[in-house]
Write a structure and sequence with these properties.
The chain is of the alpha/beta class and 355 residues long. Helices cover 34% and strands 17% of the residues. It contains 9 helices and 14 strands. The chain has helices at residues 15-26, 43-59, 74-86, 98-107, 220-225, 235-251, 254-274, 304-313, 338-353; strands spanning 4-5, 66-71, 90-95, 112-118, 140-143, 145-146, 151-152, 163-166, 181-187, 198-203, 278-280, 291-296, 316-317, 328-331. The strands form 4 sheets. A 7-stranded mixed beta sheet has the order 2-10-9-8-5-3-4, with helices on both faces. Strands 11-12-14 form a 3-stranded antiparallel beta sheet, covered by helices on one side. A two-stranded parallel ribbon has the order 1-13. Strand 3 (90-95), helix 4 (98-107) and strand 4 form a beta-alpha-beta unit. It is globular, with a radius of gyration of 21 Å. The protein binds pyridoxal-5'-phosphate. Pyridoxal-5'-phosphate binds next to helix 3. Homodimer.
């Protein structure tokens, strides 16, 4: 039976990415060696790294004055790397979910943190509005897509200070005005590659302003200067990332991908709103295009476990919601074909007919 992969992360990758990476595990770039056993300093792998960095710039229209780096440590390491490198005295953070809370906790180790607004009062089911970001902060940090709670900020906030964003779960899903940002970072395992690598886009002139000493490995400047080859990079995830980036380019770029994503999300949210059994958990205007969270309506709550079983038997994988929201979560990242979303909708309709 065909499996439809709705896992939140690690999550679905394009067939193009998986097939090319598998081929390179057997024979990398005609070297007669496996991707798993080549030197990261070989000319073939250096070319992979260079092309991957260049394609991130091309796809996201990264302006002059920015560098793209691939590093380890996950998005979670960026929670500390960002303030380590660019928090001089004070930063503003928007608290929209678990990942934002973790980023805030790390930033507090380095300076004053002003949480300008939070949606914790309603289990992070909406994006706060009408908050003020002070003009004396070094940056304003937000999580563009809240993977767990299914809310998304599909815009670059209009504030007077540089932005920093955790785009782990919606990078490459929509165009971004990079020029407004000091740092954009994303763990790869949602829209780019297998776990093990993180991409960061860093504005050069945001660096070198803090007085504290920065450990070499946590210093953006190290990785920029050495073109992400200061130490051994995660070779396989970087190779896979390059395949995904090439695939995105072949599809026609980020605007084309965004249109596909909006279509997929629209049909699924329409079904949730129409179906008598289900209700969405995120405030409609803040709904994520990547992670669609929904639960059974109160009167059908006892059917929740049944639906997971019913859907799983029909090839739906990973739709159980995160424990902090409950219910269901369908992660429909870039690589998710519309046909898989349609298959889930058919299962929801079949379940409705039986109840
Ligand atoms: C998955 C995720 C993280 C955590 O990433 P790691 O690579 O596991 O550290 C952080 N932020 C967001 C928005 C995520 O979706």
């Amino acid at each position: 039976m065909k499996k439809h992969n709705f896992y939140a992360g690690p999550s679905i990758l394009s067939e193009y990415t998986i097939k090319n990476t598998a081929d390179a595990v057997l024979d990398f770039a005609g070297t007669g060696l496996s991707l798993l056993e080549v030197s990261h300093r070989s000319k073939e792998f250096v070319a992979v790294m260079d092309e991957a960095r260049a394609l991130v710039k091309e796809l996201l229209d990264v302006p002059q004055g920015y560098d793209v780096i691939f590093v380890g440590g996950g998005a979670s390491m960026q929670f500390c790397m960002v303030p380590y490198n660019i928090l001089k005295t004070k930063a503003a953070y928007l608290e929209t979910g678990t990942w934002a809370e973790k980023a805030i906790k790390e930033a507090k180790l380095f300076g004053e943190v002003e949480v300008v607004a939070s949606s914790k009062d309603a289990n992070f089911s909406y994006i706060p509005k009408n908050y003020t970001v002070p003009e004396d902060v070094d940056y304003f940090h937000f999580t563009s897509n809240n993977t767990i709670f299914g809310t998304e900020m599909r815009f670059d906030p209009d504030v007077k200070v540089p932005l920093v964003a955790d785009m782990s779960s919606d990078i490459f899903s929509r165009p971004v005005d990079v020029s407004k940002y000091a740092v954009i970072y994303a763990g790869a395992q949602k829209n780019l590659a297998p776990a093990g690598v993180t991409v960061a886009i860093v504005r050069e002139d945001a660096l070198g302003k803090v007085d504290r000493p920065i450990p070499t490995m946590l210093n953006y400047a190290t990785h920029i200067k050495k073109e992400s080859m200061f130490n051994t990079p995660p070779v396989l995830p970087v190779y896979a990332a390059l395949q995904t980036l090439k695939y995105y380019k072949q599809l026609g770029g980020i605007k084309v991908i965004e249109k596909m994503n909006l279509e997929k999300a629209a049909i699924l949210y329409d079904e949730i709103d129409r179906n008598k059994l289900f209700v969405g958990t995120a405030k409609p205007e803040d709904r994520s295009v990547m992670n669609v969270c929904f639960v059974m309506k109160d009167e059908y709550k006892e059917l929740e476990a049944d639906f997971v079983k019913f859907a799983t038997e029909r090839g739906m994988v990973g739709i159980k919601g995160h424990r902090s929201v409950g219910g269901f979560r369908a992660s429909i990242y870039n690589a998710m074909p519309k046909s898989s979303v349609e298959a889930l909708i058919a299962v929801m309709q079949e379940f409705e007919r039986q109840h």
